[in-house]
Specification:
This protein is 31% helix and 37% strand. It has 389 residues and is α+β, with helices and mostly antiparallel strands.
């Protein structure tokens, strides 16, 4: 997720007096800008991870993610107090395929390439959400559902496969090292045991020696377990840093629907809109091309259709991209269609801090004059991957 943490806008005639502030805080310059709502960002139109949350406009602080069908039943039972009441501010998300026994037999080598059927089933997820709020002493309710899947999911990238092999070799080396170390310590301990038993002249002394041997063997095993646990914790940290990436042709699909009541009839839910997302992309090495399409209808029969593309060239410290986005709107307020074309350059100043420079044509009302814009600013990136397909 990327947040614009510094922003300011002003007209070109004031730019010469504010150049230092422009560089330090980030700014946007608009010429002949129209008084219409801006187009959304391209990333906000992409297929969401949880469509049900998106259509309802909620960002839950906690989400139920059951691992078995029984967990789903328990979560629903708790949320509805035994299926007796409407769940309040409830969020649920699960992947049916990973609840079955089949995934246990799937190795990473078998998942490198997927058929269309395998891609659909392995990436299919279901989400649901509810929201309740008080308005004029009446309870307004909202319920949404959605699904997301990948029609095509490309293949595991060469860099990811190389990294997986490196991790396997590292784990094999550690396993051999611990085995050899444990065997050496066990052998030394047994030699010491034989030596002491020969020197012991009484049965009591021999018993004490055996007690010592058992205590030492327990200590060695505990130390070995601790070392293994420490390495496992370290490996878990590396796992968080490393997630296998896929490349090639990828197509994401999602759909969500919503139901809401109104202030007149609060006892029943009515259809409250729907949304459909399609995000095709192609990823190869440092180059990426992603397309976006979103069709949205709300409870007031307002419709919007937005589509566009972005071409991205990335390196470790910088990224260059070209973006086009167009929006078509049908509503009671008769909003005009809008489109935007821009060129973006991003440079990494620090691990998560990026300098962003943009230049383009923001034609928000395609029936009016064009709007040329430029921008410069700082963005702080909280996610581990800046671009993910």
């Amino acid at each position: 997720m990327t947040f614009n943490i510094f922003s300011c806008s002003f007209r070109i005639r004031a730019a010469r007096y504010s150049f230092l502030f422009f560089i330090l805080t980030g700014a946007s310059v608009y010429v002949y800008a129209q008084d219409t709502k801006d187009l959304p960002s391209l990333n906000s139109i992409r297929t969401p991870n949880s469509p049900a949350f998106s259509i309802l406009g909620v960002q839950p602080t906690s989400v139920e993610r059951p691992n078995t069908p029984a967990d789903i039943a328990v979560a629903l039972d708790n949320a509805t107090e035994g299926f007796k009441k409407f769940p309040q501010n409830f969020s649920l998300e699960f992947a049916p395929y990973w609840m079955t026994k089949k995934p246990k037999s799937v190795t990473w080598q078998a998942d490198t390439m997927r058929t269309v059927g395998q891609s659909l089933f392995r990436t299919f997820s279901v989400s649901a959400a509810t929201i309740t709020k008080e308005l004029d002493e009446k309870e307004l309710r909202g319920l949404s559902y959605g699904f997301r899947t990948l029609l095509f999911s490309g293949k595991t990238s060469k860099k990811s496969i190389q990294r997986i092999h490196e991790i396997e070799r590292e784990l094999d080396t550690l396993a051999r090292h611990y085995s050899e170390m444990a065997l050496a310590e066990e052998a030394a301990l047994r030699n010491e045991l034989r030596k002491r038993l020969k020197e012991d002249s009484t049965q009591e002394a021999k018993n004490n020696t055996l007690k010592w041997f058992n205590a030492e063997r327990t200590r060695i095993n505990n130390e070995k377990t601790k070392r293994i646990n420490d390495e496992a914790a370290s490996a878990e940290g590396e796992k968080e840093e490393f997630a296998p990436q896929r490349e090639g042709f990828i197509v994401e699909l999602a759909y969500a629907g919503a139901y809401r009541n109104d202030t007149i009839n609060t006892s029943s839910l009515r259809k409250g809109g729907y949304a459909f997302w399609l995000t095709p992309s192609y990823v190869k090495d440092d180059y990426s091309l992603v397309g976006v399409f979103r069709h949205l209808k709300d409870s007031l029969s307002n419709k919007s259709t937005e589509f566009g593309f972005r071409f991205i060239y990335t390196q470790s410290r910088y990224a260059l991209s070209v973006e086009y986005l167009k929006g078509h709107y049908q509503s009671e307020t008769a909003l005009p269609d809008r489109e935007r074309f821009s060129v973006l350059f991003e440079y990494m100043l620090d691990k998560n801090l990026w300098l962003n420079i943009g230049l383009g044509d923001d034609n928000k009302n395609i029936q009016s004059n064009n709007s040329i814009f430029s921008s410069i600013g700082l963005k702080y990136n909280f996610s581990r991957k800046r671009y993910s397909f």
